[in-house]
Amino acid sequence: MLSILHRLGVDAVLTLGNKKTVDIVVTNEKGDIITIDVKGIAKKYDWPADNIRAPRVGKHFLALVSYEGKIEDPTFTPNVWIIPHKEIARFIKEYRTRKDVSRSLVMKQGEEFLNAWNLISNPG
Predict the structure, then answer these.
(1) What CATH number does domain 2-121 carry, 3.40.1350, 1.10.1200, 3.40.50, 1.20.1280?
(2) Which pTM was predicted?
(3) What integer best gives the mean pLDDT of the chain?
(4) Distance between CA 73 and CA 17 in Å, rounded?
């Protein structure tokens, strides 16, 4: 995530800590704050969503990263969906003991968010 954001000319930093909802903080030229919660999976599974919450400031996005079962291959580029927090609810499935972002829903209804780096690098 960080390497791609930097390649796009975005000023992005990694946050450190455990049990947080913000993994990357971005500031644009106007001084706006954009936050990103990165959810990664090695195979073709749903993304865990039990800790998805929006911060109180700025624009917040979820970056859903999938290595498509090829995490051992360092030359493979994962698929990344950049989804605004306000849009994530339509992809969440709740079960008795957990909550997930549904891979099948993202695949069917989230094509507009696949590699949507412009939502972060050029927010409107």
Answers:
(1) 3.40.1350
(2) 0.91
(3) 91
(4) 28
